[in-house]
Write a structure and sequence with these properties.
The structure is a homodimer.
Chain A (H helix, E strand, L loop, with lengths): L1 H26 L2 H10 L4 E2 H7 L4 H13 L3 E6 L2 E6 L5 H37 L1
Antiparallel strand pairs in A: 1-3, 2-3
Chain lengths: ~130, ~130
């Protein structure tokens, strides 16, 4: 039982890692970031987005696919138009990862500060002896 | 003058875009994210890091190069050992970009909420007439 929970946890964390891989890969392209910035203001059609980014529809669709695979964007065809929208909390996983690492880093800097202050206080005390 | 300032601004923003491309590309790999998480706790040698990630030194060095090119990590050889450390504010640009987009998105949701409330209030008022 514990073993199976362990395995479950490991699988979940592997799938979270793969999700982060895909999200950061999605964000590593200026056009895809611009599409996200656009969709943050509301849904848009693939045609409108492609035109705004001066791209042919076929090359632009590749970017949309990458955004969909990384679960940042969803698209749905209604009639002849494919509408895209940002997924709620699309950027939450990426943001949490970065915030977590910055917290660790800042905690380390605080410890270094405290250490340097202790050293300085000791030297001060030694000087006065 | 204004034209040259404009050009300067455009160049700076292009270089910021290229920087974000590289940072997010760096973060799109689980091993590189693990190295960042490790270095958030303090500097480490390339040898130690490679061993911890069960990688041959030569393949591992490729990851270190990517981290260096994206300006997340610096490394310096002292004697026979190459030491790596996280750059201060390494993740600041990525974090600001994500936070900015989430702010835009949340402002949009707030506007939608306000709009729905206005509609509901109007219907309420019409119903009472």
């Amino acid at each position: 039982m514990a073993h199976s929970l362990d395995k479950k946890h490991r699988l979940r964390s592997l799938s979270h890692m793969a999700h982060l891989d895909r999200v950061f890969h999605s964000l590593s392209d200026g056009t895809r970031r611009a599409v996200i910035a656009h969709l943050a203001n509301g849904p848009a059609s693939v045609g409108d987005l492609a035109q705004r980014h001066h791209m042919a529809l076929t090359s632009f669709m590749k970017h949309i696919r990458v955004l969909e695979v990384s679960e940042l964007v969803t698209s749905r065809k209604t009639g002849r138009v494919r509408m895209c929208q940002l997924r709620p909390d699309a950027l939450a996983a990426a943001q949490s990862w970065i915030e977590q690492e910055r917290r660790v880093w800042e905690a380390r800097l605080d410890r270094l500060d405290a250490f340097v202050e202790t050293l300085a206080a000791k030297e001060d005390a030694n000087g006065r002896e």
